[in-house]
Amino acid sequence: MRPVELAIFDCDGVLVDSEVIANRVFCEMLNEIGLRVSLSDMFERFVGLSIPQCVELITELNGRPPPPTFVTELQKRTATVLSRQIKPIAGVTDALETLDIPCCVASSGTHEKINLTLGATGLLQYFEDRIFSVADVENPKPAPDVFLFAARTLGADPLACVVIEDTPVGIRAAVAAGMRAIGFAASTPAKRLWEAGASEVISEMRQLPKILQTAATALEVKQ
Fold it and tell me: In 3D, which of 195, 136, 193 has the Cα closest to residue 164?
């Protein structure tokens, strides 16, 4: 029998309460370039996508690509707001303190954004050099690349990894990697996470340690 070898955390919306903040800035900028969207549209269409995927979607929806400076300005404005307003997800610090298994971050964000948000919320200490971005791999989520890269780098069997994600895109990536996916239903309706393939769905981070223990037991039973 073998325990869970690695817990892989998404960053935005799972570790840090950044989704509403960042998407409000994103929404404002899209409206500025003539793409009429609401904050709910952002969560329906854009959350979980990488920057290149977002640019492709903007081009499709607006009939033309965003201005050449759009991404740079978006990153600058988002970083400014996040540095002032970002907070850790409620209960996540206590959950990380109780974990007795290795953990890492695998996010659709850039390394700069991940380090900014984790640093500003005091969570960077829990991950140190175990941070992975879709910028490190060929294909972004929902492809499994970033999760498989994290597992391979840290010497974990994908079948013994558990992923904590808050978007259907991330859940599908975890399932494609052959990993057990735990959905965190903070900003995304639980139904969408279940439909994407989550094995469990939680609404509060205080539930995570018990769920991870359940996942470990389930993985042992499968051996």
Answer: 193
The verdict on whether omega for the bond into residue 142 sits within 30 degrees of 0, i.e. cis, is yes
The SS3 of residue 223 is: coil
- The Cα–Cα gap between 93 and 188 comes to 21
Handedness of CA 122, 44, 68, 106 (dihedral sign): positive
pTM attached to this predicted model: 0.86
The DSSP code for 175 is H
Upper half-sphere CA count for residue 74 (Cβ side, 13 Å)? 24
* Token duo for residue 74: 């978006």
Beta-carbon contacts of residue 135 (< 8 Å; ≥ 6 apart): 110, 111
pLDDT tens, residue by residue, 125-174? 999 899 999 999 999 999 999 999 999 999 999 999 999 999 999 999 99
Q: Give the count of beta carbons closer than 10 Å to the beta carbon of residue 131.
A: 20
AA identity, residue 77: R
Task: Identify which of 102, 177, 191 has the alpha carbon closest to the alpha carbon of residue 144.
Answer: 177
Rounded to an integer, what distance in angstroms lies between the CA atom of residue 215 and that of residue 180?
A: 8
**Pair 183, 165: CB distance under 8 Å:** yes
